Amino acid sequence: MACICSERSGHYNFAAGPAMLPSEVLAQIREEMLDWRGSGFSILEQPFTGAAFRQLMAETEADLRALLAIPSNYRVLFMQGGASAQFGLLPLNLLRSGQGADYLESGHWARKAIAEGRRHAPVNIIASAADQNFTALSSPEHWQLDPLAGYCHITSNETANGLQLQAFPVLPVPLVVDMTSDFLTRPVPVERFGVIYASTQKNLGAAGLCVVIVRDDLLQAPPAGLPAAFSYAVQAEQQSRLNTPPTFTLYVAALMLRWIKQRGGTEAMALAARQRSTQLYRYIDGSDFYHCPQKIQDRSSINVCFRLTDAGLTDIFLAQAEQRGLTHLRGHAAIGGVRASLYNAMPLSGVQQLVDFMADFERHHG
Ligand code: PMP
Fold first, then answer.
1. Ligand 1 atom closest to the CA of 207, numbered from 1
2. What is the pTM of this model?
């Protein structure tokens, strides 16, 4: 059997998601595809109510709890509909009738959460990065909090804008965080949050699953109109098996969690993320040909967004990068420029290849 590592050598996927998977994880999926754990069937053919699959879900939850040090008064839910569904499900699950919520307007994805939140509840913007064109974040001491809000929503990493919150405050209301693009890329103080949610297609494997970690005192009976499959309380009660969960994606997440654990956990992921992003930012900052408009303290270690000083060269840059096996570097459609998404599975060699290409391109066009 050919080695996946050599088949993929020299090709790096810098997409915002779905992202690269580690070669070891892909190899294990291939190896187990026809016979998962000696069952004689593939993972795709396992009933979700069977003992083997229930065991896999229990192991997945246990690994996640260990990696993030999730306290015992939090429930881990495996839901569908992506983080985008959560934008609407948060107010439906957490707010009482007429109650409002606080939101930090930090970038493109926070705005999506706000727009959806507004369909269900009054929204108070505690601070906005709009006046700085989403190149800097306002720090927690400047947030204009409503003490009566049902929760305060933040986005830990703005995937499209290249901004990342570096610290999480202790708040009097439940702090709710969209961690979709930096989940499991660093240790986080779970006990400061009411809810953490993240889709898995960036740092934890394949698309189709959204992990929701919710403090158990926030679970309440589903209000009229909320489908039971989208109720935190019902799914917690049913151990995320009210209906068929995304079994294959859960399996890939289980393999990714083991991969992260074997590499030293979230501390090791954070160190790797810092090494990758520092190497790229250092190159950009040392060149007049490229520039990164984000304020240094607020820059993301996961999604590095930058521009060519001569914007007219961007399309040629992207086309030539693609020819070198450096794919999906185009910035978000709403923002433009270049974006290198450096999730957990991106090796440092991918960043080295990108920097080498950027230097070559600058030599030819600078
Ligand atoms: N939030 C953030 C921060 C994201 O980066 C994304 C996806 N790029 C989403 C939410 C939406 O996730 P999904 O497509 O799984 O709904």
1. 15
2. 0.97
